[in-house]
Amino acid sequence: MQLKELNGIGEKTEKVFQRAGVYTVEDLLSYYPRYYDTFEEPVLIRNLEADRTQAVIGNIVREISVRRVRNLQIVDAYIRDEEGNGIKATWFNAPYIKNTLHQGDVLIFRGFVHENKGSYVIDQPKTFSFVQYQKKMGEMQPVYPLVSGLTNNMVLKAVRQAFQIVSKNENIPLAIRERFGLQNAEDSIHNIHFPKNQKDFMIARKRLVFEEFFQFILTLRALKEKNEIIHNKHILKEPKELEHIIDNLGFQLTNAQMKTWQEIKHDISSDKVMNRLIQGDVGSGKTIVAVLALLTAALNKEQGAMMAPTEVLARQHFEDIKDIIRNNNLKLTPVVLVGSMTAKEKREAYQLIESGEADIIIGTHALIQDKVNYHKLALVVTDEQHRFGVKQRETISEKGDSPHTMVMSATPIPRTLAIIMYGDLDISIIDELPAGRKPIANCVVGTDYRPNAYNFIEKQVQEGRQAYIICPTVEYSEAVEGENVIEYAKKLQAVLSPSIHVDFLHGRMKAAEKNEKMEAFAENKIQVLVSTTVVEVGVNVPNATVMMVENAERFGLAQLHQLRGRVGRGGNQSYCIFINGTGKKDASERLEILNRSNDGFFIASEDLKLRGPGDFFGVRQSGDFEFRLGDIMNDADVLKNAAHAVDLIENNEVYISEEERRELYKNENKMINI
Ligand code: ADP
Ligand code: MG
Fold it and tell me: Which of 151, 302, 590, 604 has the smallest C-beta neighbourhood within 10 Å, fewest atoms?
């Protein structure tokens, strides 16, 4: 049902919802709150803490004023509490506040408190009378994920209406629900939006997480069944050139790389088709193993394709492969295919791919478009596979006649979970870093360390090295993604020597622009790159030796570990500076885990221990697997139960009605992204 059917949603609002991924009224039901706000006792102004939402009781002491800063209208109010301490409240683009609040009003102001030039400001506080506030305390208010133009109230109103009109189908059979103590669909979906208390929420969440995993595993199993019966139509033998290529790499393959390569070689020359996951920590050297396989396919006069999640990464792989082909005088034709190419360039690429002239094809999602027809696709590699849906993985395979598939992942998860999550694949593990890597030196520091950090970066650049600085996107302010990095880059440029080129990169930039900047950085035309986490995915610039992360406390440790993996890729000593923006001790403690180890798996499990199960609203543990609610590490038990449930169904050990069975497989094309 269309969103426009709801009261208060016209064409414009519909578009805003679409940007948040909500297209239908049904979608609203699964647009889950990000967390729940519980109203706490108001505090005295002198007890306020920065970077938290808090409430104060106060008296508006001056006339409310409105000022303009660039294109923003800012309303200021000055509030004083019973002890006579004061704080400023500000609202952005809300001039009507001036008509609703007045000097002399005594109210409760609740908002995000932040520090500005030494004094506290309360951002966009909501105001309440004592009675109103009393009522709110004890309730759990859903807080929804937002995009610009969308407010929590808009979502709330829409969700409330949606519940009047549509309902959620039950897609977990009764026998399974009973066995694993799961709530029914209708209650759980209601309580995830409007839980009365923590307990209600937990019960609802458990069922919905189970459902996500359960659906996912069902899909994987179906895939596996399909794959298992396939015979190898592309027998790829080791080409005679390969030994020379390996000798010519400029480094010695690690034992783990060799072992993985042997496993792949065995698979692709056997009588069954290969479906293999290559799991290896960041920097363990997965790419070269994939490249060897691609070269093998090409030298067997067939085609090999590799799909990467970003254009930057795809182009980088392409350049690396071109180098190897050149260095070894191979008569091969690699082709790149990415979205930002001109129509003409794309047509040329399509033509080369279709005629079979291109034997190695590197690209992004562009590789799976309808227009791309492969001549003789024998091998498909997906890099950073967690960024693609299972469906996309399958789509590219369907482009060929049962090609071999290989997916690569740096996600550190225990083997027991890996077996569930990658149920359709065999697993190779690269558990060794190339020799001669110097361990990265880490530090966790407060914001007052910034001048030292900039000094340090300046020195590193003077020595010929480069640096990344990562800024998170700020959610509570109206700032759009990108604004931070642009401002930050400007400020930093003023601090560093003019000869140092500081530039920025963010997710909202056009792909072509991102490529240009990334290439300029790779060529050391940019020395300091201020970026959002778009650089996280696999980019390789070995000359970069400093990774500085602002507001590191807002990232998951696994993600920070990925970010750290962008440095320490060459022979030079590398450094990681994690800035704890809150100055809080528990955040520092968490970040210190990164200090203790460079092992992604260790980090993930320590993080889990520290936070404890039930800590759902912190940063997600394994941001890689994009389930809406579930987190494979935090909810490992639920994941195991869901896998068990699928076993029971497959082995006919539980009773399932015909109708339930139909419902089970209905969602099969609604893929979850892993
Ligand atoms: P990841 O596993 O994170 O994808 P990459 O494949 O990008 O890692 O490799 C990281 C860096 O290590 C690259 O610069 C690559 O050339 C280099 N490398 C890979 N294998 C070895 C090795 N055996 N010895 C030395 N350097 C290597
Ligand atoms: Mg990689």
Answer: 151
Reported as type and span, the H/E element at residue 596 is helix 585-596
Ligand 1 pocket check for 570: Cβ under 6 Å: no
Bridge partners for 626 per DSSP: 673
Average pLDDT, the chain: 88
Dump the DSSP string for 350-375: HHHHHHT---EEEESGGGGSTT---S
Euclidean distance between CA atoms 480 and 484, whole angstroms: 8
Tell me, using a 6 A CB cutoff, whether residue 249 lines ligand 1. Answer: no
Residue 191's pLDDT is what? 96
Count of Cβ atoms closer than 10 Å to residue 33 Cβ? 22
Reported pTM: 0.71
C-alpha to C-alpha distance for 290 and 312, rounded to whole angstroms: 18
What is the Å distance from ligand 2's center to 77 Cα?
51
For 423, the token pair is 């149920």
**Greatest mean pLDDT among 419-428, 581-590, 594-603, 623-632:** 419-428
The structure tokens 């056009």 sit at 510
Task: Determine whether the shortest distance from the Cβ of 96 to ligand 1 is under 6 A.
Answer: no
Higher pLDDT among residues 604 and 577, named by residue:
577
Name which of 3-17, 328-342, 473-487, 594-608 the model is least confident about: 473-487
Name the DSSP letter for residue 629: S
Residue nearest to atom 19 of ligand 1 (CA): 285
Each residue's pLDDT tens digit, 559-587: 788 889 889 888 899 999 999 887 777 78
Cα-to-centroid distance, 566 and ligand 2 (Å): 10
User: How far is the centre of ligand 1, averaged over its atoms, from the C-alpha of 324 (Å)?
Assistant: 14
What is the per-residue DSSP string for 207-229?
Answer: HHHHHHHHHHHHHHHHHHHHHHT
Whether the pLDDT of residue 331 is over 60: the answer is yes
- More confident of the two residues 609 and 523: 523
Question: CA 576, CA 590: separation in Å to the nearest integer?
Answer: 15
**159-208 tens-digit pLDDT:** 999 999 998 889 999 999 999 999 999 999 999 999 988 899 999 999 99
Provide the CA 10 distance to its chain's centre, in angstroms: 31
Query: CA 384, CA 411: separation in Å to the nearest integer?
Result: 9
Contacts of 296 (CB under 8 A, 6+ apart): 236, 238, 239, 242, 265, 268, 304, 379
Encoded amino acid at 359, one letter: D
The ligand minimizing its distance to the Cα of 285 is 1
Angle, nearest 10°, between helix axes 185-193 and 198-228?
120
Q: In whole angstroms, how far apart are CA 289 and each of 122, 191, 256, 294, 383?
A: 53, 48, 10, 9, 11
Answer whether 288 contacts ligand 1 (Cβ < 6 A). yes
| pLDDT (0 to 100) of residue 483 | 59
Atom of ligand 1 at shortest distance to CA of 569? Answer: 11
Query: What distance in angstroms lies between residue 643's CA and the mean position of ligand 2's atoms?
Result: 29
634 C-beta closer than 6 A to ligand 1: no
Q: Which atom of ligand 1 is nearest to the CA of 542?
A: 14
